[in-house]
Amino acid sequence: MKTQALVDLEVVTIGTELLLGFTIDTNAAELGRALSAIGIRIARRTTVADRPEEIREAVDAALARTRLVLTTGGLGPTRDDMTKTIVAELFGQSLTYVPEVWDDLCERFRRLGREPSERNRCQAEIPERAVILRNRWGTAPGLWMEDARGVVIMLPGVPLEMRMLLQHEVVPRLAARAPDRLITSRVLRTSQIAESSLADLIGDAEDALAPVSLAYLPGTEGVDLRLTAWSVTAQEAEASLARAAELLRSRVAPWLYAEGDRSLPDVVLDLARASGRTVALAESCTGGLVATRLTDVAGSSDVVLGAVVAYANAAKTALLGVPAALIAEHGAVSEAVARAMAEEARRHFGADLAVAVTGVAGPGGGTEEKPVGTVWFGVADADGTRAVRHGFPGTRAEIRTRASQTALWLLRDALA
């Protein structure tokens, strides 16, 4: 089979705020998805501060390696926005004022009921041989510069503007140059199992996945398994990924809940609808997070009847009817209280199935018997009530997220 090399591109993100951690670079993920879909691989990503010498060095080195560079940031009207000036110097070009760009900018300000500052006028200064990528979503136009050394594409750092310019101006141009061989991925989603345990289960099957590669993507909700087919046609990718996914399913089936972008709440709601059952919730340490994740899905009202967030012990008694004596005897974080919370939530809402969560999310409040991360879950349905205890690591937010994921997993198991 004849193979064709992928097109490599380097990304240079510009902004001191990115290095300081005040701004999260969400543009990188957007670029990776959009470019890989047309067969362009991001070979390297570099982040530099708003300093001329650092921008020049990063772009110059990237051009030498791949001849195709995309920058984000540094196109605004302030003194620290100097990307186009530096790149123009690398290309031996000077900036020239383009009245049409200024007119577009003024018109955008007028539509917003404002007047542009004279400072904005510098955004109409364009490298003399650059192609202007019209920005209909902001004030800084994108720029495409090309000569014998290669191509530099400059986009604003504002996520919405970057995304829209990428979609409408950059991807169509790059797609015309990209090979007919794509980077294609498929994701299998697992939960309630550690990354290392998954690797043990998959074992030598990982070698049999070739030419498809496997990446483990752990998070607080579980571990995603991303299969990627590189430099193949769409038809070849589909066949290779289907074979690889089937092999993984055979190894990790008990822990696999979805593929692609489907979330665990999506799965729970679909299972409930398929069986004609309704759900209620009683939450303490998760503070309504389980209910939030379920009701974030449009149309969930046909399944989720309601939820009680009973954080204080008195609320567990007043709102759910959990006997105060039971709490006093066993403690709020206990099997007995988790079972009672689930039973009372099911009764109160008239639901077919209820799940309760009560635990110690930290950072304080733990004891030797019930350390931080201890969470009890109760599940009540027509078959009776059962409870299970888990111990979760991490920060307060991570413990709460892991607890909400486990509550949803217990709902899934009961519905399935």
Short description:
The chain is an alpha/beta fold and 416 residues long.
Give a structural overview.
The chain is an alpha/beta fold and 416 residues long. The chain folds into three domains: 7-175, Molybdenum Cofactor Biosythetic Enzyme, Chain A; 182-259, Alpha-Beta Plaits; 264-415, Alpha-Beta Complex (Maf protein). It has helices at residues 16-20, 27-36, 52-66, 83-90, 99-111, 159-175, 195-202, 205-208, 234-252, 264-275, 289-295, 313-320, 324-330, 335-349, 396-415; strands at 7-14, 40-48, 68-72, 95-97, 125-127, 131-133, 142-147, 150-155, 182-190, 213-219, 222-232, 256-259, 279-283, 304-309, 353-359, 374-381, 384-391. Strands 2-1-3-8-7-6 form a six-stranded mixed β-sheet, sandwiched between helices. A five-stranded mixed β-sheet has the order 14-13-15-16-17, with helices on both faces. The protein has a four-stranded antiparallel β-sheet with strand order 10-11-9-12, with helices on one face. Strand 16 (374-381) and strand 17 (384-391) form a beta hairpin. The radius of gyration is 27 Å and the shape is elongated. It starts with 6 loop residues before the first strand and ends with a helix. The model is unreliable at 1-5 (pLDDT under 50).
